[in-house]
Amino acid sequence: MEHVYLKHIGEHVGKEVEIRGWLYNKRSSGKIQFLIIRDGTDMIQGVLVKSEVSEEIFAAAKTLTQESSLVVRGVVREEPRSLSGYELSITDLEIIQIAEDYPITPKEHGVEYLMDRRHLWLRSQKQHAIMLIRDELIKATRRFFDERDFVLIDAPILTPASVEGTSTLFETDYFDDKAYLSQSGQLYMEAAAMAFGKVYCFGPTFRAEKSKTRRHLMEFWMIEPEVAFLDMDGNMDLQEEYVCYLVQQVLQNRRKELEIIERDISKLEAIVAPFPRISYDEAVKILQENGVDFKWGDDFGGGDETIIASQFDRPVFVHRYPTEIKAFYMQPDPERPEVVLGSDLLAPEGYGEIIGGGERIHDLDLIRQRIKEHNLPEEHYEWYVDLRRYGTVPHSGFGLGLERTVSWICGLPHLREAVPFARLINRIYP
Ligand code: 4AD
Ligand code: MG
Questions:
Q1: Is 200 a pocket residue for ligand 1 (Cβ < 6 Å)?
Q2: In this structure, is residue 299 part of a structural domain?
Q3: Ligand 1 pocket check: which of 220, 326, 417 to mutate, most ligand atoms within 8 Å of Cβ?
Q4: Is the CB of residue 403 below 6 angstroms from any atom belonging to ligand 1?
Q5: Which of 94, 224, 331, 407 could form a disulfide with 418 if both were Cys (CB 3.0 to 4.6 A apart)?
Q6: pLDDT tens digits, residue range 220-273?
Q7: 186: which DSSP letter?
């Protein structure tokens, strides 16, 4: 008998098939048992009628506990009233294991309790839906950059130098030397852009963030494109097109999952180009008009970002930040060197910054000066400086935080549910 995945069950109506999975839930009315079975791809209600199967099978089904593993065989029927649209008339049942008392029941559990059991929590319907949306964002990312002739170049994870400041580095021994876990693949993407024109990397990045917020993970995934001969405006165009594509693909391919997590879909349907583009100066004015005691030159906190973004129904670019508060590699605005040609993209609904990016310094003397000013160990940046010696060109790129984006698109209260196994300031288990 053919084993089928529940995702494809609709192609087998009227036929007898085999399903391999786990018992999600069950109820019984004496002569009929209803088994809700999940196989990782979907769920189905199996119906077991006492008069239609052997006594052993009917009795065995009664012993099934939540998350017991099993193989069932049965005939697929259309059932418009059920969640999946199909039902299985069970003819045979094989139990692989009767699961011990499952710690996650339909009742309410606290978040810490669930995070301690993240390895099991992933099986729950809502968490399952979030991970499928995350998977869709990754697939859509690959399609987006492939279709535009970007080359995927992997950045190293063990690195000798920092990208985003030395205060959030995770340090590790590297034989007789020290190494750091990568904060960003950007510097390597700049090298790759000079070799391939348009490139991107997608990998885990690490930051020892000492503050406990709902927007920070110690380990997160970043998509980092880098393009030779691209300026800040072109860089924002690319981000806008990419973010719109991500949202559209989720709306198109993961509608059922958005419903499972009860996401307000109208908020996502509003995400269309063009996105507003405001300067840091204008953003400061918005804060001051909203009664925030904010000085020009300070960096935005999470609360500030929320106020700025709440003025708009779609993501907003904030560009030309003060040079002082941005990373060493940012290209100053030639007309106003006190600000840089960089931008952040702030998501709506209080999700804050999902992208950081901009033009990179391409001048040899200036990059050397900045490395000095930022007290960075020059010997570790020699290769990076080389890029300004051999055919330097203006170039731009950005980094989109995957978990921030998952969190926004799914409407989650905290980043910990946007990643399979979150690494937080107080958590490295499971
Ligand atoms: O703004 P960031 O620090 O920019 C960079 O790392 C650049 N080098 C990227 C580039 O231009 N290639 O980080 C980029 C994005 C942020 O906008 C945010 O979405 C995410 O990475 N991010 C985090 N996500 C989760 N937890 C953290 N601790 C994060 N820190 C940054
Ligand atoms: Mg940033």
A1: no
A2: yes
A3: 220
A4: yes
A5: 407
A6: 999 999 999 999 999 999 999 999 999 999 999 999 999 999 999 999 999 999
A7: H
Residue 198 domain-assigned?
yes
Final residue before a domain boundary, out of 66, 97, 128? 97
Total number of domains constituting the chain: 2
pTM of the predicted model, to two decimals?
Answer: 0.97
Residues 135 and 87 in one domain: no
Same domain, 87 and 176: no
Residues 92 and 203 in one domain: no
Please give the radius of gyration of the chain, using alpha carbons only, rounded to the nearest integer.
26
Distances (CA, A) of 310 to 138, 317, 324: 27, 13, 26
**Residue 83 pLDDT level (bands cut at 50, 70, 90):** confident
Sole residue written with tokens 């400086």: 385
φ, ψ of residue 299 to 5 degrees: the values are -90, 155
Q: Which among 404, 409, 419 is the best mutation to test ligand 1's pocket, defined by most ligand atoms within 8 Å of the CB? A: 404
- Whether 239 and 349 map to the same domain: the answer is yes
Domain ranges, residue 50:
2-97
